[in-house]
Amino acid sequence: MATNLLGLDAQGMERFFAGLGEKPFRARQVLKWIHRRGAAGFGEMTDIARELRAKLAASAAIEPPAVAGDSSSADGTRKWLLKVDGANAVEAVFIPEEGRGTLCVSSQAGCTLDCAFCSTGKQGFNRNLSAAEIVGQLWLANRALGVHGRAGAVGAGNRAISNVVFMGMGEPTMNLDAVIPAARLMIDENGYGLSRRRVTVSTSGVVPGMDRLAAECPVALAVSLHAPDDALRDRLVPVNRKYPIRELLKACNRYLERAPRDFITFEYVMLEGVNDSDAQAMALLGVAARVRCKFNLIPFNPFPDSGFKRSPAERVRRFAEVLQRGGITVTTRKTRGDGIDAACGQLAGEVADRTRRSRTIPIEELRA
Ligand code: SAH
Ligand code: SF4
């Protein structure tokens, strides 16, 4: 079967070329063609000898996921539905902002971790995406956004996408075999050339995965905290039962040893009457004192039958104020992609659930 070169990082590509009896610099050349220039076929690779191109065509391919949907919102947000196999599709979202453009990518078809307020979690899980399926989202978005002019190469500087966040479907630290090569391609100067701090992995707090990411590819890290104490976090983010807040904070500090001058971004979804009181904000100050961090408040994005409500804007503002008075840098995420269900936690794609998940936590219990 042909090897899909889209998912090979520098090392993988060199290994593949060594297998063909070719020099490492050929691997770099092809990597540049695919990711910097967005080449979709070997025929385009004009500075590569015809003979090698033929050899590549026989043993390799450049295969992105198939685009099954492409919708835009009035605010410029754009969402692609990408078919990754006969039964599953994932979503990627481009969010343009003043001075930057962020692509939100998916790492799994579904998610095993079942957070109470997340539509991906409620869908169950089918499988991990491959590195090609993950980096393929960036490859496709770059092409769709029209910056790979057929006329020639473009550098990272004039691309629409300046940042990538692993905040789409799935838990990236549960799929590091694919996420790490994909992230490496994103920061490789022959690949997408993004700075390490402009690629953010978001995790619900899978401690061993955080440690591995720190060791192998310490890009920026966001941690989905969502509660100031274990009692509530156990219910909102069930993986907390395995890795409680104490262990999570230790892992954050180990991560920062590998990523000096960085900080952890704590994400905090604002759920009315569940985790949005002043007392809970005060309690968060205790957590924040233990890690170099910033907070990003995310107004809850509703989806059918979620059972939760978004905290009113005034409540979010007050909550932020308590944190800020405590000396914490806080940002509140603007809701983007209205009308196309492209906001955080609304990505659903199509997942052929293999977990037969039945929702477990009654909503009354969460409100207690
Ligand atoms: N699995 C990873 C990354 C994907 S989710 C993680 O949990 O961090 C990206 C972010 O969206 C997380 O902070 C997640 O908690 C948040 N999120 C999930 N559902 C949401 C919803 N309905 N509204 C707002 N944010 C949500
Ligand atoms: Fe999975 Fe993240 Fe959704 Fe939790 S919030 S279910 S970890 S995708």
Report on the architecture of this protein.
With 368 residues, the chain is α/β, with parallel strands linked by helices. The chain contains twelve helices and 14 strands. The strands form three sheets. The chain has a ten-stranded mixed beta sheet with strand order 3-4-5-6-9-10-11-12-13-14. Helix 1 crosses helix 2 (24-36) and helix 7 (207-216) runs parallel beside helix 9 (245-258). It starts with a strand and ends with a helix. The structure holds S-adenosyl-L-homocysteine and iron/sulfur cluster (SF4).
Explain the layout of strands and helices:
Layout: E1 3-4, H1 10-19, H2 24-36, H3 50-59, E2 60-61, E3 66-72, E4 78-83, E5 89-97, E6 100-104, E7 108-110, H4 119-122, E8 125-128, H5 131-144, E9 163-166, H6 176-187, E10 199-203, H7 207-216, E11 220-224, H8 230-236, H9 245-258, E12 264-270, H10 278-288, E13 293-299, H11 313-325, E14 330-332, H12 363-367
Parallel strand pairs: 1-2, 6-9, 9-10, 10-11, 11-12, 12-13, 13-14
Antiparallel strand pairs: 3-4, 4-5, 5-6, 7-8
S-adenosyl-L-homocysteine (SAH) binds at residues 115, 117-118, 167, 171, 202-204, 224, 267, 269, 298, 300-301, 344-345.
Give a concise summary:
The protein is of the alpha/beta class and 368 residues long.
Percent of residues in helices comes to: 25-40%
Any idea what the radius of gyration is? 21 Å
Pairing-aware structural class of the strands and helices?
A: alpha/beta
- The helix-strand sequence is EHHHEEEEEEHEHEHEHEHHEHEHEH
**Within the largest sheet, what's the order of strands?**
3-4-5-6-9-10-11-12-13-14
What is the beta-strand fraction?
A: 15-25%
Mean pLDDT: 91
Task: Give the termini separation.
Answer: 55 Å
**What's the helix count?**
12
Give the cofactors and ligands: S-adenosyl-L-homocysteine, iron/sulfur cluster
- Please tally the β strands and state the result: 14
Main sheet specs? 10 strands, mixed
